[in-house]
Amino acid sequence: MFKHFFNLQWKSFFRSASFKTNLAIKIVMGFGVLYFMTAFLMLGVGVYFIIEDAKIGDPLDVVNKYLVYLFAADLFIRYMMQKMPVTNIKPLLYLPFKKGQVVNYSLGKTAVSFFNWSYTFFFLPFSIVLLTKGYDPLGVITWLLGMFALIYCNNFINVMANNKDSFFYPIVAIFFGLAVCHYYGVFDITEYTASLYGSLYSMPWTVIIPWVVLVALYFSAYAYFKKNMYLDAGLQTKQSVAKSEDLSFLDRFGHMGTFLKNDIKLIKRNKRSKTAVMMSFLFLFYGLLFGSGAIEIYDGPIWQIFGGIFVSGGFLFTFGQFVPSWDSAYYQLMMSQNIKYKDYITSKWYLIVIATVISTILASFYLFFGINAYLAIVVGAIYNIGVNSHLVLWGGAYIKMPIDLTSNKKAFGDKQAFNMKTMLLSLPKLGLPVIVFALGYYFVGPITGYILVAAAGILGFAFRNIVFEKIEKIYKKEKYKTINAYKQKA
Amino acid sequence: MIHTQNLTKTYGTATVLNIENLEIPKGQCFGLVGNNGAGKTTFFSLLLDLIQPSTGQIINNGIQVNTSEDWKPFTSAFIDESFLIGYLTPEEYFYFIGELRGQNKADVDALIGGFKDFFHDEILNQKKYLRDLSKGNQKKAGIVASFIGNPEVVILDEPFANLDPTTQIRLKEIIKNLARVNNTTVLVSSHDLSHVTEVCERIVVLNKGEVVKDIKTSAATLKELEVFFGGGDFPETKEAVLEEEE
């Protein structure tokens, strides 16, 4: 029985569309995985000494203190990204397998996911360092076992909580609130949790507790799944109640308004586009790494403008890049309708501009770090609107990657999003403003640098029509190839 | 209305469509039948400029389809689900198409009001997005959307598939009226011989990309088609057919 499952899994892996990419991408992906593994490994080995040097207490205690946030973040990332095992179950239902076997197989599949074993690269070396530093071996081992149990607890919690937004978002809000309280010294949850994690070391027998919880979670996940293994229960594709909304105030923009209305619905009603917006929200905080001393190289003045571009450009990078792929599911319809490409592109452009402006306003909390920090963001926003918005739309015309709006799969990069033309177009997006700023900064002064970048943005604005015409030509030229590419479901 | 001249479509060495000359006059209800891979969808895709012809051209109302886009305002189609926007409700979808075709909300409301029976209370005001409707209901919405904006040419690929019997019967009436009353040119493809013979005044049979029969529908047509497809005088039956469709 297991042989069949294994065989299916093997084939689904090696025959998947993403596996059949070219060698170069595979190597890049390999390096990516290797990078994360090394980073975890180095952190695992190094964290002890870093904490020791910083003299903020016993390394194990400090790690225990922040573990609660690690597990919360882990749950968050899993919820956003980890794929649920319900896919591919349907064809197994009619076959002579026992239901229990199918459930065990599906749950087992989640257990070997990257989200679980990657932590080994952190916890294992850290534990070894603890042992060499003379910590009690039994305590360290029970602590490590406890950590594994908790990671797997998260795994099964996620399985059960999957797609329950009403359950998930309050929890996110609670943890966010706790973190804020901690930061401002109102209430420190870590004081309570740290001792819980600490007891895994100081009282080895307590390791039983997380394992008992894990076993309990496994069985409840098992029961939950088994109960829901019907087409009209757990295997049903989620349907949401449709809400019509009145966006008729956009009617005054003519055809462009029609597209704008549609784009707003597109963003609001699809999982994939919602994730893109959420990601662009996170970009807002990217600037915190700059000038705060968090990463040394980022403290150079040149890098401030680099950060400024990112802070306001989140939406531009996460959404704009993939125009027109957002409409891939019904591209044939669009192409057989009486559509002015220019209206179509302009509507997407306005979306990007509106989002950039909103990001810039939201980013006003950077004023707290000084007027210069916010100036870099405002200048970055001007450059984003004037130059980058055109460049992403231009680059997007070459990306022929169908987007499945209803799933988050591949939300974080795809083979076809990665090609030479888009790479080349991304250089002026980030490189050019940095160079322009550097010229102004080193020859005259920071203000001149800002003025130059802003001027480049305004200048880019003047080329809008030319760029739009160019994009229109690409759309027309690539039409048949694009239709064909969008027909290949990922 | 539609002139097809020396039209071929080749993939590699395989020719999937080869039509020397085909004229479809205005107001005709035109049926296209053929087995899987006969080239029906290929022909419709060429008509909509979704793929490029290898040679030849289609001229729709004086406009060469693959060089100008001016045929778009008076031509509409429903080929498959890729013509639907899944995250819209049916109403929103109709209004969207309407706006693209220069119809205001009232125009669209008036049109879809006429299809109340056809929808059978399963499309409008359902609080469901198109992606959550059943296949048959999706098809109903798509077909009706193709009638928005008084198109002169309507292209429907397999409109009867997936529909329930009641809806099939109603759809036949709708298509007949479209040609008779509005003088619309309707192009329909189907695997159901009895449906097309009932609806269409002219039936063209495609086999392996070529026109093998061009019949003016009469009482004897259904029998003739059944004999043809039943293998009587079906040329080169048992050979592999190009699986281009689906």
What does this structure look like?
Chain A is an all-alpha fold. Chain A contains 22 helices and no strands. The radius of gyration of chain A is 25 Å and the shape is globular. The two termini of chain A are 29 Å apart. The relative contact order of chain A is 0.07. Chain B is of the alpha/beta class. In chain B, 31% of the residues lie in helices and 25% in strands. Chain B is built from eight helices and ten strands. In chain B, the strands form two sheets. Chain B has a six-stranded mixed beta sheet, sandwiched between helices. In chain B, helix 2 crosses helix 3. The C terminus of chain B is likely disordered. At the A-B interface, helix 12, helix 16 and helix 22 of A face strand 6 and helix 2 of B.
Primary descriptors:
heterodimer; A: 490 residues; mainly alpha; 22 helices; globular; B: 246 residues; alpha/beta; six-stranded mixed beta sheet; four-stranded antiparallel beta sheet; 8 helices; 10 strands; 31% helix
Task: Summarize the helices and strands and which ones pair or pack.
The complex is a heterodimer of chains A (490) and B (246).
Chain A: H1 2-14, H2 23-54, H3 59-81, H4 90-93, H5 99-111, H6 114-117, H7 120-132, H8 137-161, H9 165-183, H10 190-202, H11 208-227, H12 255-269, H13 271-283, H14 301-312, H15 314-318, H16 331-336, H17 341-362, H18 371-396, H19 420-443, H20 446-462, H21 464-477, H22 479-487
Helix pairs in contact in A: 2-7, 3-8, 3-9, 3-10, 5-11, 7-8, 8-10, 8-11, 12-13, 12-17, 14-18, 14-19, 17-18, 17-21, 18-19, 18-20, 18-21, 19-20
Chain B: E1 2-11, E2 14-24, E3 29-33, H1 40-47, E4 55-60, E5 63-64, E6 75-78, H2 90-100, H3 105-113, H4 116-119, H5 135-145, E7 153-157, H6 165-182, E8 185-190, H7 193-199, E9 202-207, E10 210-216, H8 221-229
Parallel strand pairs in B: 3-8, 3-9, 6-7, 7-8
Antiparallel strand pairs in B: 1-2, 1-4, 4-5, 9-10
Helix pairs in contact in B: 2-3
Oligomer: heterodimer
User: Please, how many helices of chain B?
Assistant: 8
What portion of residues of chain B belong to β-strands?
A: 25-35%
Kindly name the structural category of chain B: alpha/beta
* Helix-strand pattern of chain B: EEEHEEEHHHHEHEHEEH
Helix content of chain A: 55-70%
Shape of chain A: globular
Number of strands of chain A: 0
